[in-house]
Amino acid sequence: MLDAPNPVDETLRQQALDRLELLDTPADPYLDTLTRLAHDLFGVTTALVTLVDRDRQWFKSRQGLDVAETPRSLSYCSHAVMQDEPLFIEDSHVDVRFAGTELALRNPGARFYAGWPLHDAEGVPLGTLCLADPKARQLSEREKSQLRDLAYLAEGYLQLQQNSQQLDDLRDALSREQRKGMLDALTQLWNRAGLLHFLPLEQAAAERSQLRLGLIYCDLDHFKRVNDTHGHDGGDHVLWESARRMSGAVRPQDVVTRNGGEEFVILTRVHDKQELLQIAERIRLAIASQPMQLEQAQLQQTASLGCALLGPDESSADALKRADQALYRAKHGGRNRTEFAPSPH
């Protein structure tokens, strides 16, 4: 097969990627907005922000793809990074570079491919903004310019993230291997292990800022019915889309986690009950405001939420239990609503 050879400066490139500290981190609502725009603008099945790691390509943002990573040996993005220039494949079945290779044969969803390299501040290629589709097609010069502009925005955002305080905190708190174990593969949110890790950190940060730690339990309404009606693929898409909407509805410093199944927990530092309920309502409306587009249908999904403020001298486990009880009241009070758990004292 046609492997993507490593560029001469691969060691330096990998070091630059490692310094970025973005591998195996939660999905980013800003990049998700950008890939969603690319997905809709070009009318392709798949749009990705890809980071090319040692032996894999990992997707920081993805539209139209269920997996978080694929082998680097089966990656068109590796070729774009290797040559450090845009790569356009109109039809992999006849392209003289790839036709008949394992790369083309094992990527039926990428018969058409267009990838634009993304660089760090020093100009080192780290990955791509890419498009893929199972049908052959050709981009016009105008469309290539539009892809270039979107890649410029993605690249600039990645460079800004490299210097963010949030990433500095993440770098101090977790190694890369620890992050991998705390990331939910389907939704690209922190999983329950991540929730338990960040709880004491967020509690301490709230205390330092003289704020309160708010806890929001969010449960998707009638989710079993979604799986029964639309299958597990449909259910997975609803979970993924719900995670995107939740992340987009909260602030950058808030921690969004998937606690298991269709249940999510959000940690947020707030001044009071009113601010906490405003955030919860933004989450509820983000999920319910527009139908979710499944492969063969549209689905109007709603969610129920329960909120609690961590009380003085209260354990986080007890506060989570109170938020869960508030969620129970929301579901039994008619669903698609938010309930608040009063202070235990």
From TrEMBL:
Residues 211-343 form the GGDEF domain. InterPro entries: GAF (IPR003018), GAF-like_dom_sf (IPR029016), GGDEF_dom (IPR000160), Nucleotide_cyclase (IPR029787), Rev_trsase/Diguanyl_cyclase (IPR043128). This is Diguanylate cyclase. It comes from Ectopseudomonas composti. The lineage of its organism: Bacteria, Pseudomonadati, Pseudomonadota, Gammaproteobacteria, Pseudomonadales.
